[in-house]
Amino acid sequence: MFAPGSLSERIAVWLLIFLPVASAAGILLWRVTWKNARRRYPLQDCILRPTGESTRQKLEAESERFANTVLYMTLLPALLYATALAGGFSPWLPSVVSCVGALVGSAALWRCHDRLSSYGLGYAGERAVADHLQPLERAGYRVFHDVPYAGFNIDHVVVGPSGLFAIETKTRRMASGAPETRRRTVEFDGHLIHYPGSSDRYGLDQALRNRDALRSLVNEKLGVELPVSGILALPGWFVVEKGIAEVRVMSPQILAPHITTAKPPPALTRELLARVIVLMENLCAMNLEPPKAD
Q1: Percentage of residues in the chain with pLDDT exceeding 90?
Q2: How much of the chain exceeds pLDDT 70, in percent?
Q3: Residues 6+ apart with CB under 8 A from 95
Q4: 3-state secondary structure the chain
Q5: Confidence bin at 76 (pLDDT 50/70/90)
Q6: How far apart are alpha carbons 223 and 227 in whole angstroms?
Q7: CA-CA distance, 231 to 255, in Å (whole number)?
């Protein structure tokens, strides 16, 4: 056991360790609150949701969680050691608690890193698909990204002369070791997607849900039954469709040619097309003003 010093010495040790941190946090909080109270955000208009906005927000939240975990793992040993030193206790108990905290924090960082990697891959895939959809804008189409509806988001919605298209993006890593062409080729038989070494329906049911949701949305808001084409895009893969299903599966490179050559639904008039575009714009509008600090 440490020989305890006077109470004033213990308080001084504790303050010397934690007063700078508390002071810095207080100054930062005051600065943010004062700045929000005295200044208005200059941009008052709304913008349309950018590509992968929901995934970007998840990435941002996960990055903040990662940084906070690292901060807690750094401060915990100092807090425990300062408490033991100020109270005249043995360092063994703080050491044990710090080791347990390090193990728990390391496990949390491991899971956080996995989520960051997954979100980063998904975000890159959505950006790639958006790039391949960009030429449609010059052909008279409107492309909307990350369209929110009924508690989830549709990655991409294309509205134009040939109809409405709900596009779901799924990005998957490739196995190493096989020849390049074989690694990048998948087959869709109408029921399953056959990747090198595995087969599944991952993304198909979600693409079907997105198609039905967009159709229900248009019917609910505009009172019109319009057909919607569902597409599952697999960026980075060469897709061979050997079967036809309710949802098409394709590489992003052929999205624009497929959409522009699709047969337009008879019910899609210019007036109705304009109403659908306004509906999508309202759904995708974002307020630019950042949230104020409490």
Answers
A1: 48
A2: 76
A3: none
A4: CCCCCCHHHHHHHHHHHHHHHHHHHHHHHHHHHHHHHHCCCCCCCEEECCCCHHHHHHHHHHHHHHHHHHHHHHHHHHHHHHHHHHHCCCCHHHHHHHHHHHHHHHHHHHHHHHHHHHHHHHHHHHHHHHHHHCHHHHCCCEEEEEEEECCEEEEEEEEECCEEEEEEECCCCCCCCCCHHHHCEEEECCCCEEECCEEECCCHHHHHHHHHHHHHHHHHHHCCCCCEEEEEECCCCEEEECCCCCEEEECHHHHHHHHHCCCCCCCCCHHHHHHHHHHHHHHHEEECCCCCCC
A5: confident
A6: 13
A7: 9
Assigned token pair, 6: 């006077």
Q: Summarize pLDDT for 88-145 with one digit per residue, the tens.
A: 666 676 677 778 778 888 888 899 999 999 999 999 999 999 999 999 999 999 999 9
The one-letter amino acid code at 219 reads: N
What is the maximal distance between C-alpha atoms in the chain?
A: 89
Question: Side chain identity at 279, as an amino acid letter?
Answer: L
